[in-house]
Amino acid sequence: MTVEVKKETLGFQTEVKHLLHLMIHSLYSNKEIFLRELISNGSDAVDKLRFEALSNDKLYDGDSDLKIRIAFDKDQRTITITDNGIGMTRAEVQEHIGTIAKSGTKQFFEALTGEQAKDSELIGQFGVGFYSAFIVADKVTLTTRKAGSDKSEGARWESAGEGDYTLETVEKAQRGTEIVLHLKEGEDEFLDSYRIRSVVRKFSDHIALPIVMDKEVMPSYEDDSEENADDTEKSDAKPVAQIEEETINSASALWTKARQDISEEDYASFYKHVSHDYQEPLTHVHSKVEGTNEYTLLLYVPTRAPFDMWDREAKHGVKLYIRKVFITDDAEQLMPRYLRFIKGIIDTNSLPLNVSREILQQSKQISNIKSGAVKKVLGMLESLAKNDPEKYATFWSQFGAVIKEGPIEDHSNKDRVSKLLRFASTHANTDKQEVALEDYVGRMKEGQEKIYYVTGETFSAAKNSPHLEIFRKKGIEVLLLSDRIDEWLVSHLDEFDGKHLESVAKGNLDLGSLADEEDQKNQEEVNKDFESVLKQIKDVLGDKVSEVKLSHRLTESPACLVADVYGMSLNMERIMKEAGQMMGGMGMGKKPIFEINPSHPLVARMKTEQDDSRFADLTHILFDQAILSEGGQLDDPAAFVHKLNGLLQGLLH
Ligand SMILES: Nc1ncnc2c1ncn2[C@@H]1O[C@H](COP(=O)(O)OP(=O)(O)OP(=O)(O)O)[C@@H](O)[C@H]1O
C-alpha cells in the first residue's frame, strides 16, 4: 500500500460550502454549540473504539484511559479538543470531513427557503456536526490517526471554511483526533476556563466519558515547610504552579441515575448528545426493567421529524449498550420501522460484552428487550395523547404518517397502535388529523355499525368525493384519508373495537339500519324505470366498466365510479400505477362499477334522449367526470373537452 504523503488541496462539495455559509450566518446567536458537536463526535469515536477493542484489545495500545481533553491557548488564540477514540484514516477524513454523506441531505437543501429564521431551524434539524467549528473559527486543523495504524499514518486536514481544504499525511504519536480551532476575531470569550467549563456542563455533563481540562495547582506550603524545615534557601523560593488534569463533567451515564435525581434540563441535554439534534425533545421515557432480562432504557421522541425519515438508508436512532459500553447504533432489531424516529439508548446487563453482531441479530434477549421497549414507547405515546393533547398533535403532525405503518408491521400491538391513530374526518371537515377511532365510535349514529372512510389522492379529493354525498345528507361521519400510507393501513386494519372499517367507494353500499325503508321501496320502482338506460350505458362504455347501476350514495352528482368490494380502490390503483407496479390502465384490478344518480336532471334526461350519438356523448362525459371528481386522470382529455363543448354549443341555439 502506498501512503500518500503529499499535501493536496481539495475542493469542498458544493453542499458543504452552502451549509457552511448558512451555518456561519444563522447560528451566530447560538455559537457555543460547536463545543457540544465536537464533544459528541469525540465521544462517538471513543464509543466506537471501545466496541472494536472488545474483540481486539491491542487497539488500546497501552492507553485505555479514554477521555476528551479540552485546552486553550490565549496567545495563539486557539481551542484544542482531543479525543483518544477510534480516529480516522486519510481516506476516511476525505470521505467524512469535506463531503456530506448523510441521508436526507437532498431533502434538506430542497427545504431551505432563504429566510434566515426558518433556515436556521432547518439547519438545527439537519444536524450541524463538525462544521459547526467554523461558527467561531476562521481556521480549523484536524489531525487524526486511526487506532491500530502506524504512527506515520496520521492525517492532517486544514481549512479556513471557504472553498477548499488541504489534506496531508503526518506523524502522529497518539491515536485519535485532535481539532485545533483558530478563533475568529472577537471570539476570545472562549479563551476562558470558566466559560468552557460552563458550556461543557450545560451540554455534556452526563455523557459517560470524562472531559478533562488542565488546571494549575499551587503546591501546598505546609507540606513544603515541614519537609524542608531546615532548608532556608528553598522556603524563600516562589512556589511553581503544577498542572493537574481535572474532570469537568459528571461523566456518569445519565440513564443509570434515579429519575428523581435527573432534571428536565439534564434529560434534554442528554437527548441532544445522543441524537445530535439541536432542538428540545418532545417527551421521553426512562425506565429500568428487572427480571430475567435486565435493562434500562431512556428513549425520546424528537420535536421535529428528521430529513431522512423516509430514507431507507437512514441511521437508527437507538443505541445499544451492554453494561454501559456502547455496542452499536445499527441495531435495527431494537425498534420496529414504524418507531424509527425514536432516539435514545438501551443498556442491558443480560448480554455478554463480547457479543458479536451476528449473535445480536438472533438473540432472544434482544427480541425480548425490543418488545419490552416498544411497549414502553407506546405507553409514553398513550400518556402524551391523554395528558397533553396539544403536544400529541405536534407529535402526530410530524410522525403520524410513520405510526400508520404500525398496524401493518406490528400485529402484536395492533390494538394499541390503532388507538394512537388520528385522522381527518367530515366531522370537522378540515385537513387536521385529530380524530381518534375512539372519538369516531363515540359519535356513531344509532344503528350505525361500521366505521366509514374514503380515500383520495389529496385531502380535497377525499373531502369532495361524490361518494360522501349520502353520508353528508344523513349526517354520518366519514374519515377522510389522503396520506399515501392510508390505503395500506385500511387494507390491514379491517376493524376497530368490533366495528368493521368500510370504504364508502367500494362495493354495494350497505347502510344497514341507517337506510330508510321508504327509500328502498322507491329504489325498486326507479330501478325498473331505468332498466333500459342502464343497459344502453353499458353498451356505450363496453369493457371500461364491469357493471352500470343506479346509485344509492349520490344525492348531488350525476355519476360516480365504485371499486369492486374485493378489489383495489381506484386511488390504490393510481398509487400502484405511479409506483410502476401495474402494467397499463386499470389492468390489475377488476373494472369499476359505474353508478348513476337517477334523481339528477342530466341522468333523467338520458331516459328521453332519442339521438344515439348524443346519448353516447353524454355517457362518456359523465364517465370522465366521475374519474375527474375522484382526482383521477383521463386517458384522452382532449376527447372529453371536445364532447363537452359539443354539448355546450347546443345551448347556443
Ligand atoms: N472526533 C472524531 N473522531 C473520529 N471520527 C470523527 C470525529 N469527528 C467526526 N468524525 C467522522 O466524521 C463524520 C462526520 O461528522 P459530522 O459531525 O459532520 O456528522 P455526524 O456526526 O455523522 O452527524 P451529526 O450531524 O449527527 O453530528 C462522523 O460521522 C465520523 O465518521
From TrEMBL:
The keyword Nucleotide-binding applies. Residues 218-241 are annotated as: Disordered. It is found in: Cytoplasm. Residues 575-653 are annotated as: C. The keyword Chaperone applies. GO terms for cellular component: cytoplasm. Residues 221-230 have a biased composition (Acidic residues). Keywords: ATP-binding, Chaperone, Cytoplasm, Nucleotide-binding, Stress response. Signal peptide: none annotated. GO terms for molecular function: ATP binding; ATP hydrolysis activity; ATP-dependent protein folding chaperone; unfolded protein binding. Residues 30-187 form the Histidine kinase/HSP90-like ATPase domain. Its main location: cytoplasm. Residues 1-357 are annotated as: A. ATP binds at residues 37, 41, 83, 88, 102-104, 125-130, 177, 357. InterPro entries: HATPase_C_sf, HATPase_dom, Heat_shock_protein_90_CS, HSP90_C, Hsp90_fam, Hsp90_N, Ribosomal_Su5_D2-typ_SF. Molecular chaperone. Has ATPase activity. Belongs to the heat shock protein 90 family. Homodimer. This is Chaperone protein HtpG. The lineage of its organism: Bacteria, Pseudomonadati, Pseudomonadota, Gammaproteobacteria, Methylococcales.
